[in-house]
Design a protein that fits this description.
mainly alpha, Ferritin, 214 residues, globular
Length: 214
């Protein structure tokens, strides 16, 4: 039985490594169609295109962080149901990652150059949260998704009005994030103590500032 447990941990480590390589170096594949695929391409001027690309780069980096966070949490989750919940959310975040990457290409832009650093940090935070127990694991899901939902709402407000493709993508992402948070609450998430959400918001603000430019 000890051998089986060790193999299980090894399998999780290999899964984490494979996810990191696929997220950072591969071309993620969405299971769902791109919500913006049927929207007309807007005639954006140079400033509008640059701004839209900066916002989509932020969202792409956010999805890199979400992948790392959930995979890190799943790697140490104790309850199989919690781990399944985290991996299901991670798969939907893979859809988001693929959609954002595709939109960046359409805008003739690229992902953030610092994504490997954000991935490593987010994986470590996810694993640390998971080691505290599954209630804390799910609590991080709730807080992460609530903060992402808020910044997606902000981006929908500041995107160029004619950029229907980016808007369609972010609208579906926003709905998905709200659903992930609701499911985590229903599964027994613990409410995080006050300093943690504040710290998460501060880190998110730094990430958004850097990713918009780099």
């Amino acid at each position: 039985m000890e051998t089986l447990r060790n193999l299980g941990r090894l399998d999780r480590l290999l899964d984490s490594t494979q996810n990191a390589l696929a997220t950072l170096l591969g071309t993620p594949r969405a299971q769902r169609g791109n919500p913006g695929a049927d929207a007309p391409e807007a005639a954006l001027d140079a400033d509008e295109r640059r701004h839209a690309a900066g916002l989509m780069r932020i969202n792409h980096t956010g999805e890199v962080c979400a992948q790392a966070l959930y995979i890190g949490q799943a790697a140490v989750a104790r309850d199989p149901a919690t781990r399944a919940h985290l991996l299901e959310a991670a798969q939907e975040e893979t859809d988001h990652l693929a959609w954002c990457a595709e939109r960046l290409r359409e805008l003739h832009s690229r992902p953030s150059l610092i994504n490997p650093l954000w991935y490593a940090g987010s994986w470590a935070i996810g694993a640390a949260a998971g080691l505290r127990g599954d209630g804390w694991n799910l609590g991080f899901v709730v807080e992460t998704e609530r903060q992402v939902e808020a910044h997606l709402a902000e981006h929908l407000h500041t995107l160029p009005a004619t950029d229907a493709r980016s808007r369609a993508i972010l609208a579906v992402m926003k709905d998905d994030e709200a659903r992930h948070a609701d499911h985590a609450l229903a599964a027994g998430a613990r409410i995080l103590p006050a300093p943690i959400p504040t710290l998460m918001a501060t880190m998110s603000s730094v990430m958004k500032t850097v990713a918009y430019r780099l």
